[in-house]
Amino acid sequence: MSTAIVVGAGIGGVTAAVALQRRDWQVTVLERTPELGEVGAGISVWPSAVAVLEQLGVEGLEKASIPAQPAGMRKPDGRWVVKAADLGVEIPVMIHRAQLHDLITAEFGPAVTVRPGYDVRTIEQDTKTVTVNGELRADLLVAADGIRSVVRKTLYPQYAGPRYSGFTAYRGIADVDLDDGGGETWGRGQLFGFARLIDGRFYWYGTANQPAGAQSGPTVFASWHDPIPRLIAGSEKVLHNDIYDLTLPLVPFAQGRIALLGDAAHAMAPNLGRGACSAIEDADALARHLGSMAGSLGSADGLAAALTAYDAERRPATTKLVKRSRGLGRVAQTENPVVCTLRDGLFAVGGKLVSLRGRK
């Protein structure tokens, strides 16, 4: 049986473990924190990622329903710019990160071993094995250890790595009673969004331009339209994180017997809501390419061919997402009043054109 070490037990790492397990791999998952689990708030799971999880046997991801009330883009005073129904956009499943993590790890079987509280210090590889800390050996190592990946730094020490986006983010979960379809509100250098989770609570997030490391709170949104102040006030805890993505061009996702996955490979700004979904899709692609080369994985050439195919599929796709997320972030966070007016007008006209086209 082929063996793999997965470094990092976030969404991408545990999905990779399940995907490899279903291909008859023996998997060891290493997690530096003392307990397995996810922190954070809500997450959007788009149809492509939902399909992957369903194929892996993950249950409990209810299909998203169309909100009873309008959703879309608004101005800080509450006026609509464009409604989601006019754009005909896809609707993702909205779920808490911890709940999604639990649903995925529920699929762990005897082939998956988890070692929490394990700190990866050294990684070595040769033509036959990859070794972690001089003691754990496997045929393959999957680096799912996040944007500040130790594995990526080991493989590519000259790579610039994370870059600050220019804005910070606040996130929370509000257990409030709202009759609102949600969406996003775009201001000048600030943005606020919210959506109902499948458990009935509301996930919200706000972003604001400011220097990295500045200590602040979401008070800038106190004067914005209802229900934004109520969502913030109804949150027991508010998370605050500066937003980084990875420098372009991205490094190769494979080197020798090591594959990069998720934020370790392609951390992106959250503007498209595709980061975790991309990690899920990485896991599926990696397992699929390894499966297609199952008969030759015993040789270094067979494994190299599988990982080369994985890199060829996923690096171009995720590079586009990093660029699109970064570009949308620049548009959303602009402080220029003229550009903001033009931006909102273009969204409004675009929504009307899409709506008219849909009625033909």
UniProtKB/TrEMBL annotation:
Annotated source species: Kribbella sp. HUAS MG21
InterPro entries, alphabetized: FAD-bd, FAD-dep_Monooxygenase_BioMet, FAD/NAD-bd_sf
Source organism, top-level taxon: Bacteria
A GO term for molecular function: monooxygenase activity
Oxidoreductase found in the keyword field: yes
Keyword hit for Oxidoreductase: yes
PANTHER family: MONOOXYGENASE, PUTATIVE (AFU_ORTHOLOGUE AFUA_6G14510)-RELATED
Residue ranges crossing the lipid bilayer per the database entry: none
Designated name of the protein: FAD-dependent oxidoreductase
Domain FAD-binding residues, every copy: 3-163, 252-325
Record Pfam families: FAD_binding_3
Keywords: Monooxygenase, Oxidoreductase
Gene3D superfamilies: FAD/NAD(P)-binding domain
